[in-house]
TrEMBL record:
PANTHER family linked to this entry: PERMEASE-RELATED, TRANSPORTER, PUTATIVE (AFU_ORTHOLOGUE AFUA_6G08340)-RELATED
Keywords: Membrane, Transmembrane, Transmembrane helix, Transport
One protein family per Pfam: MFS_1
Predominant place of localization: membrane
Ranges annotated as spanning the membrane: 24-44, 64-85, 92-112, 118-141, 153-174
Protein name: Major facilitator superfamily (MFS) profile domain-containing protein
One GO MF term attached to the UniProt entry: transmembrane transporter activity
PROSITE patterns, A to Z: MFS
GO CC annotation: membrane
Organism: Lunasporangiospora selenospora
SUPFAM superfamilies found in the cross-reference section: MFS general substrate transporter
UniProt membrane topology term: Multi-pass membrane protein
Subcellular locations according to the entry: Membrane
């Protein structure tokens, strides 16, 4: 009798090579994207050091409200973003989120008032809300359950890198003050977006 399906033979060495290839190709890319996400999230603090409050005429209270708007949207849109993620898949949803948060972060360079900053920070929070859950779901498509914890730890460690050199990068970028008539805080948003 002829067999319709090929016989599956598990090759442990081949499996290790495939997992290693995924580790070297997938994790660094996702980690760098998380690093950019974290930089976009915290660049408002660096922009404040280089004149954001003066350029947009903010008070301390208004600045704090703009900070809170990001996290309010981040919490409010995480579940709806996960719903969309399941419907259209991470292959499309993660790039859509990346383009959205990059565009919003770029738009922050031309904010001139508290209202504009508040709206932009709320929009940034809504765009970034689905990224981390989306990536964690995406990783489950490639790795076995026993392999998740190490890969997730590696992915999440990239925000440490963003915190380590984000301030240095912002200080270097702020030296562009006056180029094309833009302030240093505007260049921070433009380049880091």
């Amino acid at each position: 009798m002829r067999q319709l399906y090929p016989v599956f033979i598990q090759d442990d060495e081949m499996e290790r090579r495939v997992v290693r290839k995924l580790d070297w190709n997938l994790l660094p890319l996702l980690g760098v994207l998380y690093l950019f996400s974290f930089l976009d999230r915290v660049n408002i603090g660096n922009a404040r050091l280089f004149g954001l409050e003066e350029g947009t005429h903010l008070s301390d209270g208004q600045y704090n409200i703009a900070l809170a708007a990001f996290f309010l949207a981040y919490c409010a849109f995480e579940i709806p973003s996960n719903w969309v993620l399941v419907r259209i898949g991470p292959r499309l949803w993660i790039p859509i989120l990346m383009v959205a948060w990059g565009s919003i972060s770029l738009a922050l360079a031309w904010v001139t008032s508290f209202t504009g900053l508040l709206i932009a920070r709320f929009a940034l929070g809504s765009a970034e809300a689905g990224f981390v859950p989306g990536v964690l779901f995406y990783l489950t498509l490639f790795y076995k359950r026993s392999e998740h914890s190490l890969r997730i730890a590696i992915f999440l460690s990239f925000n440490i890198l963003a915190g380590a050199f984000g301030g240095l990068l912002a200080a270097a970028i702020a030296n562009l003050t006056g180029v094309w008539g833009l302030q240093g805080w505007q260049w921070i948003f433009i380049i880091e977006s």
